[in-house]
Amino acid sequence: MAMVALPESLSLAASVNDPKEKADAKPPIVGGWTPARELNDDDLAVWTKVVKTANTDLASKGTPQQVSTQVVAGIKYKFMFEDGSSVTVLSQPWTNTLDVLEVQEP
To answer: Is the pLDDT score of 58 beyond 50?
Structure first.
């Protein structure tokens, strides 16, 4: 079985050992979406790659303001923008898959 490294933002150890985390933070729901948060470097790298490879004009949306993630057979990213729109993307690095699943306009 191949091991896949998760981005640090999805690591349980990262949230447990991070002193900046609130003491009353709820643990993630297995299979559920994480709460919306600011993008980190890993998230921004995924967004940048999506913009370069997508068949739609996602660049016009600008930089996402927040992101939520869900671990599935890969990682789903829901990128959220200031205008209320969102773009959901599936990333499976081990298969070189990066697909836009949904674009929601406000």
So the answer is: yes
